Amino acid sequence: MGFKCGIVGLPNVGKSTLFNALTQTAAAQAANYPFCTIEPNVGDVAVPDPRLEKLAKIASSKEIIPTRLAFIDIAGLVRGASKGEGLGNQFLGTIRECDAIAHVVRCFEDSDITHVAGKIAPLDDIETVETELMLADLESLERRAAGLEKKAKGGDKEAKEALLLAGRCLVLLHEGKPARLVEIKQEEQKLLNGLGLLSAKPVLYVGNVEEAFACRGNGFSNAVEARAGEEGAAAVIVSAKIESEIAVLADDEQKEYLEAVGLNEQGLNRVIRAGYGLLRLITFFTVGPKEARAWTVAQGTKAPQAAGVIHTDFEKGFIRAETIAYADYVAFHGEAGAREAGKFRLEGKDYIVADGDVLHFRFAT
Question: Structure pTM?
Answer without folding.
Answer: 0.82
